[in-house]
Design a protein that fits this description.
With 745 residues, the chain is an all-alpha fold. It has a domain at 604-706. It contains 29 helices and no strands. The chain has helices spanning 19-42, 48-71, 75-99, 109-135, 140-158, 166-183, 190-217, 221-225, 231-246, 251-273, 276-293, 300-336, 358-373, 386-404, 409-428, 437-449, 454-474, 478-502, 509-527, 535-550, 556-576, 584-602, 608-628, 634-646, 650-655, 660-679, 682-706, 709-725, 727-743. InterPro entries: SCO7613_C.
Length: 745
Amino acid sequence: MPAPPAPVRAPARERSWSVGTILLVLGAFGLVVAGLIFVTRSWEDIGLAGRTLILLGVTAVIGGLGVWVTRRPLRASAEAVWAVFLALLTLDFFAARHEGLVGLGSLDVAAGWVMWGMVAVVLSVGLSMWARPHLSVDLVVPAVAAGLAIAAAGAGAGAVGDDWDVAWRAVVALVVTGLLALWTRPAGSHVMTIVARVVVAAFYVVAYVASLVELAAHPSLDQAAAGGHGGPLLLMGLTSLAVAWLVPVVRIPAVALAVVAVSVLVVTPVLDAGPEEAAWSVVTLLAVVLAATASRGTGDWVRGARLGATPMVAAVGVVQLFLLGEALGTVGRVVDDPWRAAWDARLASVGGDHAAWAVPVVLAGLLVTTWFVLAWPELTSVRPWRSSVLGAALTLGVVTSVVALRLPVWGGVASLLAVAAVVAVLRLRGVWPVPTPVSLALVLFASALALASQGVSAVTWVAGGALLLGIAFVSAGEVLRLVHASAGTLLLVSGSAAVTALTDADDSAVPLVAVVVALALMAAVRLVVPEHPVAPAVEIAAGAALAVALVMPGSSGEIAVRWTIAGVGLIALSVTATSRRWLVWPGMSALVVAYVALIVDSGFSFVEAYTLPLGVAGLAAGVFAATKKPDTSTWAVLGPGLAVSLLPSVPQSLAAPTELRALLLGAGALAVLAIGIRLRWQAPFVAGTTILTLLVLFNIGPYANAAPRAVVIAAVSAVLLGVGITWEDRVRDGRRLVTYVRSMR
């Protein structure tokens, strides 16, 4: 037999506000409003007995109705009726206090709120516990009422002591709300627990902030201890521990706030008493203790301690940033006015004098704190960069310490270079894998600081450059090696120039030495270690230093010497290094610049003194290229040389066509034309023909201008007539000429 069809289930109805629910809410709201109107308008017209009966009667009726609908069970009706009951009961209580019934008249407003909060909490808890078996769920109204009652009692407790400090009153309010929140635990209502915790959390935040403000307003040790202004924050710390013990879900932030409270209590009086070095030391030592204590474990208590230690750890960083700002300010002052101090003069820190004893404490505290913080389990992802972080902390601490101690210029610079060298040695020997940029940063800061003294800067730049070049050649890591090599090269060239400046040599010797050292470095890496990865970086940096040295100001003669040495050096390097043949072109360009500078220094005023040797050199190179590459156009290889040799003389020759310059230019053009015809080179042929034609025309010009106009007209007409008669022959000859020129190379 076929199986009977499965019963069709009616689709679940979406829960929504029904008409009955809406009527219940409106009815409850109407009863509350009616009660308010009655109490405010008609209460005075009724005697004491009537008032008492009305209070008891209405409350009893609503309470009985609530019992009836709860037992039915009618969930929505129960919520509405019990809301009216609790609201009317609240009105009854305060009306009774106002009229002095049952001894409530002796209570002031604050005490009345406290008492009613306690009563309302008890009623809400009892109502929730009684209604649960009938409704099988927790009522929301008693939970909300309990939260409001706790808040009312806390507000009343905070207003009891009018002459107390705000922080003390906030703490009292928090204690009252906390105790009343504990009263809600027997109810076992999840909603009531959440509402109570939210209310207590709000009072906790207010009390904690008020305690911090109170201590900040009275920071001295006498005020905080004897005056009791630190008591609220101490109680908040103890309260935080109690909350952490009672409420595991908020244990981590509660422990953190307890640690912060204790830290603030310790640090604030020291900050107020001064000096700032004492505050730095206390903050640093406290950060070390907290970081070390919380460095192990994964429980909530330890995690909360680590979270609470974070502000003190951050404060150590803030202290270092403050000192770094002073250090950078000191360097800025040195750079603005370099080479003004003696080698043994003390560094003039922009932050003033600092107690020497605090500087090593702060430095050691920074390193120890960084060490323990990196051991925190939350920073496991940072563990692979542990050495880098420690190296950065070491760099920061050493730089700030050198400036804060106001050491002599040589002492501060020597300390930085020594630490850089030690770190590099430890890295290269595998003792401590600290990144090499630590040494780079220390050397660069030392180089900037050394600008205060000329002698110190010279030694520092040479030593620092040699150290960085050594690191670059023996370490690994392509990018970092290139950076170290470039910085080391520039420092070495600058240091060599600075050492020269210390002697009694002429000022022109400084850039000259820089040129020689730069060329020597380029030659050394290209000839000794051409295959080393850092060789190109050294060459580029040395080339940049060479360019700077070449453009330094000086007389024409000094410039000529510099550029000559550079040109000869580059050409020699191009000959000896096969892979650097292209250096011949910048070398020749340097010689050209040197020649021009020499001519300027010699005082020659005619343009051929500048252009003719360059043109001849260009023509020689072009002829060499033309013989080596027969297929190359003569315009490409000979055009530049012809232009430089002939064109600069054309304007003055045309202006004075009968002078010696025009004669010599014509002779040169004729020689160029002859070479073009003999070798069938197009560029010399066209250049010689053009210049000779211009010279002939400009030589005829004066005579044509002096002859009678009739003679000129007759001569031109005769020429035109002859051309016209022999036109076909001329066209044929022109075509042959064009073909001849085109056939040239």
